[in-house]
Amino acid sequence: MSSKKTAGTVAAVNPQALEAEAVRAIEAATTSEELDDARIRYLGRKSALKLALRDVRDRETGKSLNELREHLEAAVARRADELERATSTRRPEEAFDVTLPGEPLPRGHLHLITQIRREVEDVFLGLGYQVVDGREVETTRYNFDALNMPPWHPVRSPRQTLFLDDDTVLRSETSPSQIRTMEQQDPPIYMITTGRVYRRDTPDVTHAPTFHQVEGLAIDEGITLADLKGTLLHLARALFGEDRRLRFRTHFFPFTEPSMEPDVSCFACDGGGCPTCKYSGWIEMGGSGMVDPALYEFVGADRYDPERVSGFAFGLGLERIAQLRHGIPDIRLFWQSDLRVLSQF
Ligand code: DAH
Question: Which of ligand 1's atoms lies nearest the C-alpha of 312?
Fold first, then answer.
């Protein structure tokens, strides 16, 4: 009886007809749900094929039914693959093209003052200078006394300088680092320092209570005013262009003798006269001069013998350089963190 039943069930499956029908259904599936339906219908536990396989008694039938199963499984896998590929090309937003450039992320950059500071440092590193760090908190001894400031000098007043206590100030200029460097090193010295200085100024277009200076100091045998002029001309050309010229106006600083204010020929009009140079053809760069021997005395004339060594010094404002070169009308813009301004540089 049982053999008859088996024969009957198996006979109900015509492998060729079933394969043709199933492959047609599998290939007709246009979604993964439809494919799943076809797979369950032809390969599921209750499918004619699985039922027939369960009742198989002879080797030949088993072999052909198993081959049929393998063909159908392969057809399902192939169709699944095709569908997957079709969906991903049909929805390009889901496709991943590794050759496309990425989404640009907003990127910051150095503040203009930092850029100019590094530019100036590069110029002097190229001349063999060392870049030293100064202190923003200084004693009155280094900020005033050592720089030969007379007791009555107005910069010693709390109306001009920010005092932390009677003997301590926020440095009003970078010049104290000249003294600290001379104390720490013997001549020859070729150094610059850059950094913040503080003054009790009311902010306006040209004044900020904090700004930046670059201070330079060169001490060696045989240093002359011509070396100072050549060095500042080299800097002016690096900052404002190769055609710049330099002139000196005499001035007074307590720590230099003689003292000079360097002017650079206007880069905007080349000296003809324009709003940038206030129609003078020249732009003021800062202060400079030959190191006053009083400073050597302060650090020790045995190490700095004024009969043997001489030197020059200078101090320039970095904001001023930036304002001139980039036409920035108001010094307060450097401190306002307004990206509309900062992102231009
Ligand atoms: N310290 C001066 C100032 O802040 C600038 C200056 C002038 C620096 C002459 C120097 C110098 O080194 O020699 O106004």
Answer: 13
Q: Mutate which of 223, 314, 321 to test ligand 1's pocket (most atoms within 8 Å of Cβ)? A: 314
Ligand 1 mutation target, pool 173, 292, 319, most atoms within 8 A of CB:
173
> Alpha-carbon distance 232 to 236, whole Å?
6
- Please list the pLDDT of the chain residue by residue as tens digits (345 residues): 444 444 444 456 788 899 999 999 999 999 999 999 999 999 999 999 999 888 888 888 889 999 999 999 999 999 999 988 877 665 666 667 888 888 889 889 999 999 999 999 999 999 999 999 999 999 999 999 999 999 999 999 999 999 999 999 999 999 999 999 999 999 999 999 999 999 999 999 989 999 999 999 999 999 999 999 999 999 999 999 999 999 999 999 999 999 999 999 999 999 899 988 999 999 999 999 999 999 999 999 899 999 999 999 999 999 999 999 999 999 999 999 999 999 999
3-state secondary structure of 205: coil
Contact 200, 160 (CB under 8 A): yes
Q: To which residue do tokens 């001309």 refer?
A: 233
User: Could you tell me if 130 and 188 are in contact, meaning their C-beta atoms sit under 8 angstroms apart?
Assistant: no
